[in-house]
Structures are given as C-alpha cells and as structure tokens.
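Progress note, sequence design subtask.
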C-alpha cells in the first residue's frame, strides 16, 4: 500500500492511473470543440465533462494529501529528481486550477453548478464578473495541462526506452 524507494504503492498507482483515465476523458473535449460536437464524443462523454472535472478535483486533493504522507519515502536528491518533482508540482497545480477555473466560469456566468444530474449551486445565484473573468482562464489552463501531460508522457517514455533506468516500473 505504501510507497518505497523502488516503487509506488498501490494507493499511489490507483490514484495515478485512475486520474490518467479521467484526465484523458476530459481532454477529449478538445476534439469536441474542433468538430463542433457532431460525433460520438459529444453525445456520450462530453455531457459528463463538468461532473468528471469535479471528481478529478476531489481526487487531486486526496492525492495531494496522500503524497504529503509519503514525502519522506520519495525523496530524490539528484538535479533530475528535483526537476521531475517541480514538473509534478506543476501538474498538481494545474489539476487544481483547471477545475477551479471551470467552477468560477460556471458560477460567474450564472449557470450554477451541477454534478451527475444534481444541482449543487442554483442557476443565477452567484453571477459575478470577477468569477467569470477568473473562469475565462479555463481553456488556457486546460491547454497548458494537456501540454504538460504530453511532456510527462514523453519524459516517462524517454526514461523507459532511452535511459532504461526502470523509473516507469515504479508506476506499474
């Protein structure tokens, strides 16, 4: 269950891969925007975009709490380890900011907040120009997150196939 120097524990791996699947689901929204919603993604996955975003935000908060409990086991002292840690911090930050900006956008424009069919915040109850302005960063932050994820995958593949240092074995 716990992490160690050689590999991540079960909890960390479930967080990692479960969130990876949900983030991939969320990123399919880019294709929906490009094709104007006239395909299966728009009809089957996109209607849950906001709900999954809220689930991801909850998961990233839980994951950060878990990472905090494992911090002493995961220490990396090399400069490459420090860069990897900074990259992970940037990913975590974006995984929090993207859904927060979406919440600001929805509330600021007066749409309310709904998750899996349940109205969490009523429509029109929180309309605010400030929240809408903060929410306007959602697409930019999501694009930056997508770029960071591509970099994350690229570095993981580079470590696995070029450096052959076994670092990907930590998450399998």
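Output:
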């Amino acid at each position: 269950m716990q992490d160690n120097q050689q590999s991540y524990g079960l909890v960390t791996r479930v967080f990692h891969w479960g969130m990876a699947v949900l983030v991939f689901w969320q990123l399919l929204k880019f294709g929906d925007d490009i094709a104007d919603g006239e395909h299966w993604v728009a009809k089957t996955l996109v209607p849950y975009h906001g709900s999954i975003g809220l689930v991801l935000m909850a998961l990233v908060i839980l994951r950060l709490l878990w990472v905090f409990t494992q911090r002493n086991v995961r220490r990396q002292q090399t400069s490459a380890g420090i860069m990897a840690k900074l990259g992970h911090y940037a990913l975590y930050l974006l995984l929090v900011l993207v859904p927060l900006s979406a919440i600001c956008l929805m509330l600021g424009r007066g749409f309310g907040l709904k998750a899996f069919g349940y109205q969490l915040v009523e429509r029109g109850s929180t309309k605010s120009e400030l929240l809408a302005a903060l929410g306007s960063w959602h697409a930019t932050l999501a694009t930056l997150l997508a770029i960071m994820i591509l970099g994350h995958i690229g570095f993981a593949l580079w470590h696995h196939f070029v450096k052959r240092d076994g670092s990907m074995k930590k998450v399998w």
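Strands lie at 113-115, 118-121. Work on this subtask will continue into the next period as scheduled.
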